[in-house]
Amino acid sequence: MRININNSVFDEEEPNVLVEDEGTIDLEERNWYLNNQKAEGIVKDIRLDGAYFLSYKLEVQNKKKLLISSDDLVFKLHFEFDEDVKYQFLQNKDQYIEINKGTYELLFLSQYNKQIVDHFNSKKSIEIFFEEFFLKEIAGQEFNQLLSDIQHREVLLDKTNNSLQEGVFITDEINAIINEINNCNYLGFKRKVFLRLKIKELIIVAMTTYESSYKKTNLLEQDVKSLQDVEEYIKTNLKKDLTISELAILAGLNTSKLKKSFKKVYGTTIFKYITSIRIEKAKELILKEKYTISEASYEVGYKNPQHFTVAFKKKLGYLPSQLKK
Asked: According to the model, what pLDDT value does residue 262 have?
């Protein structure tokens, strides 16, 4: 697998990330520390035979560009945590895929779309590149139809005015695995085994959730629209005491169908989704609006800051007080 990641946050004297493996790689790991006029932060780099994991935590001065190209047929899972991003295919600039904050998407670099570009202001995301053989080694034939559908996404893009704005919600299970990878404390051989297994687990869980969401077209168009209305209502009313009954009335569905349909589309339950959105909004208020922890917790619907702290730690793996350091 050969992937070139040309990142404009690197200084000219610093190399761009080039992944090129000709044989079996047990596991290689390194960190790229950036502290220049363009960006500040870290890029974690983990390489396996047939897969490549990147974790970005960057703050940039001005909007930057990330250009990804590959000479091989490569799939890419992109998990976005900080801002809405748009991936544009250079071979056809009218085609693009939008990934909203708190969601992830599955992309395919084909012989037709060898290069994609991502513009960003700050970057807190996870990217996993993998070849088809790697997925088949860990999951057999489980995702054959999904991979085939993604490979022919050009047809889907043509049917949706050349843009795709789906994105699958990042579940608590996916978040937990990502936190375990980023916060791994093992050393030596144990670290290699742990990271290898966790990256494989992350791919399988993400692909399973994605496949379930991808099949949401089985729902009636009106039901999908109703769920989107529910999602928008949740995001704009976090301070309220949201209930299933209230949301069911809004959607025009009974509570049972609402819960079942919501999980099918978003890959998680309504209450877990509400909790995740509240935590992400509170995190944004603390970091960008300089709210205190108590103020932020109240603003997103928590009457007790201690309950907020417990939920925050469970979802993100660290205490909200660490955001203040």
From this structure: 85
